[in-house]
Amino acid sequence: MEEGTSKSPSNCASTVDYGDADPFQWDTREDCQVRQILDRIADKWSLLVIALLENRRLRFTELRREIDGVSQRMLTVTLRSLERDGLVKRTVHPVVPPRVEYELTSLGRTLHTTIQSLVTWTEEHQAEIAHARTAYDTRAAEAAETTAS
Amino acid sequence: MEEGTSKSPSNCASTVDYGDADPFQWDTREDCQVRQILDRIADKWSLLVIALLENRRLRFTELRREIDGVSQRMLTVTLRSLERDGLVKRTVHPVVPPRVEYELTSLGRTLHTTIQSLVTWTEEHQAEIAHARTAYDTRAAEAAETTAS
DNA sequence: CTGTATCCATTAGGATACTG
DNA sequence: CAGTATCCTAATGGATACAG
To answer: How far is the CA of A98 from the C1' of C20 (A)?
Structure first.
């Protein structure tokens, strides 16, 4: 089984009281809890899973069908992580064939607003970003042209 | 140079009008713009860089010193991505030794609120998550114990 | 100082086969 | 159905050396 978060937990910044000045001085140390958790919830599939479960509880296969491109392995790994972090609850119904359902915990549900704002920002600004990329690539191509001459 | 985002841009969900019902039906397709952008800004270093630049413009070396554990290569790669996405502006002062400064663009600054809410959530709930992990690991260990007997 | 280029180790993650 | 186990490839990212 793959294990993450096995380094020093070093509960950085936990005792720091953020007033209203410099609200952005969160710890940049590598072993910071905040960093680890961000990495976890911002990974390739977690956001998607949380988003889908926000609406309703889903079975393993339903999740797999909804999320385009996820492998069985990665869906399992992702769900285990989320369960371990207390964001998702896993319920096994003792029937055959087995029926396993996933749903958000109350902790998981508190993430909704936050994730939503991130998704909304991305949706609202994707055109700008696409434009910036095109502009950048054009400039880069021209610079290469000049150099090559 | 490493290049990301080279697949089909497929401007998913851009024409969808989100009312107030089902605000979470964002596209789960792999080639979705939103997914790509989220992956980008949620990567290992981007959040950190944006966070630091929120306060003030910084030179390359200053960033490197502030961000514990980042290699020269990854800082460069990250900064280039952010520049390409129009989130960060790079200014080269033609002096020797060279002096290069990075600052957020207005687009980059609009990300601040969003990122802040994510960081705040993480800070507020890191204790809960740590607790959940411990509980999960304990249960897992006990289960392994039982199986082994 | 601010990079780029190269090499290499680690990890993420897909494909497949098998199990309760 | 809902996984686990194994194998293997691709991508991430660090270390180092070198250049403008």
So the answer is: 10
Q: Which residue among B14, B38, B51 sits closest to A47, beta carbon to beta carbon?
A: B38
A18 contacts in chain B (CB < 8 Å):
123
Q: Which residue has the tokens 């080269």?
A: B92
Instruction: Please determine, for residue A11, whether its predicted confidence score (pLDDT) is greater than 60.
Output: no
User: pLDDT, tens digit, for every residue of A49-78?
Assistant: 998 998 899 999 999 999 888 999 999 999
Give residues with Cβ within 8 angstroms of B91, minimum separation 6. Answer: B100, B101, B102, B103
Give me the CA B30–C1' C14 separation in Å, rounded: 14
> Which of A121, A133, A138, A139 is the best mutation test for B, with the most CBs of B within 10 A?
A121
Nearest to B90 by CA among B59, B49, B65: B59
How many CB atoms neighbour CB B68 within 10 A? 14
What percent of chain B lies above the pLDDT cut of 90? 44
Residue A112, pLDDT above cutoff 80: yes
What are the chain A neighbours of B143 within 8 Å (beta carbons)?
Answer: none
Domain B33-148: give its CATH architecture: Orthogonal Bundle (1.10)
Phi and psi at residue B102, to the nearest 5°: -120, 140
Per CB-CB distance under 8 Å, the chain B contacts of A67 are 28
Q: pLDDT digit string (tens) for B7-58?
A: 334 344 433 444 444 445 667 776 667 777 877 877 778 888 998 898 899 9
- A8 has pLDDT over 60: no
Cα dihedral B68→B69→B75→B77 (10° resolution): -150
Closest partner CB to A28 (pick from B33, B66, B112): B66
pLDDT at position A26:
67
* Joined tokens for residue B56: 């003030």
